[in-house]
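Protein details
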Amino acid sequence: MKRLILLAVLFFGFSAMAQEKPIISSAVIAIDRNNDVQSAKGYIDEAQNVVSTKALSEIREKDLSKFYYYKGLINYRVANSSDESIKALDPNALDKAVEGFSQLLEFEKKTGKKRYSDEANKQMTVLSNDIARRGIAASGAGDYESAYNDFLKSYTLKKDIANTVDTNMYYNAALMAQQNKTYEKAIPIYEDLVKMDYHGTRFFGINIETGDTMDFSSGPQMKTFVEAGKIREAQTSGDVRPNLYTTLIYLTLEEGDTASYKKYLSEGRTKFPNNVDILKAELQLFFDNKEYDKALANLDQAIAADPKNAVMYYNKGVILQTEMKRTAAALEAYQKTLEVDPNYTDALYMSSIIYIDSANAIGDQMNELPLNATTKYKALEEKQKEVFTVSLPYLEQAYNNNKEDEQVKGALTQVYRALKMYDKAKALMD
């Protein structure tokens, strides 16, 4: 009796070890002969459960190749089915298809017997494009982490399987990592792209809320933001190289890597001396180092390259006013700002401050006069009034542009009181 029990156990164990072959065959018949994707999916998942419990050495090479290939093929059919009920069988079918074909290619490379490799290579090229399309959809939905993973996966698949370097996908992966603020992932890719001398196509526009330049992974994604009213001045450029340097400059600075920051700033300025964005980045370095003469020269170069850039004129005015105390030159810079953008609130406010500071300085002179210097006092008082009067239209326009700006409101209240316009001053305080 003991011998019979032992033989039964051995027979059962042998059956369990051998059962993946008929299940794989059932999956093949279901997909190839009957085009029954649902049944094929059930069989291949069952085969996966069996294979995962065994050492690969326990499975015949031929059966394992067939299993990997059909795991890829069946899951791909699920992922691309026009029948939503079939798609719903497995939301991860596309990734499992990639896994199946990848396992097949790795396995057959190791064994040296290419039973399905040629067909799997063709399928992987198609799959890489599907992964890229999924990444575009994820980026449009704001899921930048998933988009990064898909773009990088698409790039890697083409590189490893088809020996094709799709730098557009690599660039898109970097953009998604950057937008997801995972700069440690974005920086190495941007560095690789610089080494590759990647030109690419850049899709970008101006963020309406922040005024910053915003890059996109594709034309459709940029169009989505335009239609949502989130960006303006949408553009396409055939050379992203200056932007690669600009991005590396800001990201390495953000990460505290000052050596890389200076390196990419120097390289970028040498290669693209008239690029406004790189000029802006260099401006920050000069400003931080208090090299104001260099900063002004930098700004003049940026203005020459982009004479309609109000921000550059404004920055020039701020440096002249606050750091170099050259108020007359600062006023000229602010005037240029307002010629480009008449509603530039900060330029209006800073212009008014120059006049207010001048009026307050006259007030200091008045206070230092002896009590009997009535004539001089009145002359200075009249002069002070004239200066406050000059500042008034700047402040009133700035206030009309932004009534929530407390600095503007405070300065305007001061000027109203100085000009004895008490009703208007009171109205601002109510």
In short: DSSP finds 21 helices and three strands in the chain. The two ends are 103 Å apart (CA to CA). The beta strands are 202-207, 213-216, 231-237.
